[in-house]
Amino acid sequence: MTCRQMFRIAMLAGTVFAAPVAASAQQVEIGIAQPNLEHPYRVGGIERAKAWGAKHPDVKLTIVDGRRDSATQLSGVEDLITRHVSAVVLSPNDSKALAPIADAAKRANVPLIIFDRKLDVPETDFAAFIGSDNIEMGRVAARFVIEKIGEEGKVIQLEGTPGASATVDRKQGFEEEMAKHPGITVVSYVGHYRLQEAVAAMEDAVTAHRDVKAVFAHNDTMAMGAAQVLEEQRLEGVATVGMDGAKEGCEGVASGRLTGSVYYPTMFPESLDLAMKVLAGETVEKMTFLDTPMITKETHDTYCK
Fold first, then answer.
1. What pLDDT digit, counting tens, does each position of 202-244 carry?
2. What is the value of pTM for the model shown?
3. Which of 183, 208, 293, 305 could disulfide-link to 152, CB 3.0 to 4.6 Å?
4. Name one Pfam family in it (predicted).
């Protein structure tokens, strides 16, 4: 096998396979199960995973696309386990709906590494977790909003996919922090982490709440959708805050369309490194949390590279 790892992409039962041209019988295979492969955060993450794979020609990466459907993702991961891959790296579409996969992996002796989003199972049911504290991310966003608008005003919250741990936790952290400021009213809408759904939700929001002083969106895609509506409605001076700090978030902050974005590490290479340590029998932390600072115009160059 050459040092350059080559990928072939094939669609089968909701699964995208990225594999070397030739695979040895002893080769390590890691399944990467994603809730979808369309969101910019996921697209960028998969590119980083492939770059990681190019540096590890002895590892075969099999990428599962959940297509934003928990049943599809569950089926794809079950297939990985049935084929006895070396390990599964999972970001669940829904924390509860994907929970049964932990027991299946445990019974098959396939190490399960959770990243990005939590799985609603005891810590004893998976090998390790790596991610950010989404509750704290919500708090960081809330404190930033308060800095921008003061102690009074109306804030629109654009929530992500209902049931996803990131949605639940970001909402919890934001609302807990905002509850300390009784002069602030938070009104929530659901945007499912998607641009057009966020635009539609924001159009409804500004129709009902023309006095909005800030928008907090659970990701940068929705924040950019909110910014679009605010521009179209000629509502100026509204603080608009997103999350993830991916390419669109960085561009939004640089252009001034976003006031800020809470940085969210991609974690794809890190989760693969963690899987390799588990497979090597190394002792690893059960729960690893990464820092999530604010990206503003002042800190843009530090986090947007």
1. 999 999 999 999 999 999 999 999 999 999 999 999 999 999 9
2. 0.76
3. 183
4. Peripla_BP_4
Task: Decide if pLDDT at 25 tops 90.
Answer: no
Q: Which amino acid is at 253?
A: V
Are the CB atoms for 76 and 13 separated by under 8 Å? yes
Structure tokens that stand for 8 in this block: 């072939």
The Cα–Cα gap between 68 and 49 comes to 20
Exposed, middle or buried by CB within 10 Å (0-12, 13-18, 19+), for 74?
A: buried
The torsion angle over the Cα atoms of residues 189, 200, 118 and 48, rounded to 10 degrees, is -150
CATH code of 134-264+298-303, in short, is: 3.40.50.2300
CATH number corresponding to 8-126: 3.40.50.2300
What distance in Å separates the CA atoms of residue 118 and residue 288, rounded to the nearest whole number?
12
Backbone φ and ψ of 96, nearest 5°: -85, -45
